[in-house]
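Revision sheet: structure tokens.
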Amino acid sequence: MKSKHLSPDEEAVKVLKAVANKHRLEILRLLSVRPHNVNELAAKLNLPFSTTATNVKKLEDVELISTELVPGRGTQKVNAKNYDRIIVDLFEKETEINDKQFFIDMPIGEYFDCKVHPNCGLVGEKSYIGMQDDPRAFYEPGRKEAQLLFMRHGYVEYRFQNKIPYGTKAKEIEVAAELCSEAPNHKLDWPSDITVWINGKEAGTWTSPSDFGGERGFLTPSWWHTNYTQYGMLKRWRITSEGCFIDGNKITDKVTIKDLELEKHPFISIKIGVKDEAENKGGFNLFGPKFGNYEQGIQLTVET
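Predicted:
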């Protein structure tokens, strides 16, 4: 399933204007079934040929559909869709690096350590990796290709290269990941307390409300059944000199950036998991860039 991703810029404005019309939306729907020429579209829409041709041209101008010459009774123009979905990313991707910041996007299969309890599994872009519900699958050589990782409880730990310049101190650190609870198939009422630790210090616990499914994630492959987990929520853990925050909301001031002692270690440890003693022990799903709704792995940003 091919998606067109848009940032909130001039291109997005043009595309959204093009689809803000019921006839053009119907054209896109018809082309999702099979290619049509303008005569066929006009007949199905019950519109004049000229009106249909104008609408087709507007969709062509923003590259949502394409037209090619096909031999038939003479040569005729046939229209086809270019995309299955249009996605507007309203969040800012933190990929710009300056001399006071470093950024790493870690693949979810590149964990350093793990403790896994069934239900559990690793899923690649095209198939499962190893056996489902077998913790031994988490040690498969192919685990680095994982795009979805799930378990009932336990954790995965990642070690990011420490790029803080010598002689400087970190002012804040942020971890961002797409996550949700883990239930058999999926379950919308299934809370789970998901915790993040940074260098062994607890950064905060977020209670996921659901294991989201039933509606396909924007990036989730078509072979993955819709009654399985489909997508999560993008959550951000941040620690500063003032304390710990989740999505900008202060959780505690008992742990600060100083407590992490980031400058003393060659790596930065990020652990994601569900505690054995959690009140809501509903597991977790962790999504990679080719599953779910967000095109990313585990993102680490450090400012100095």
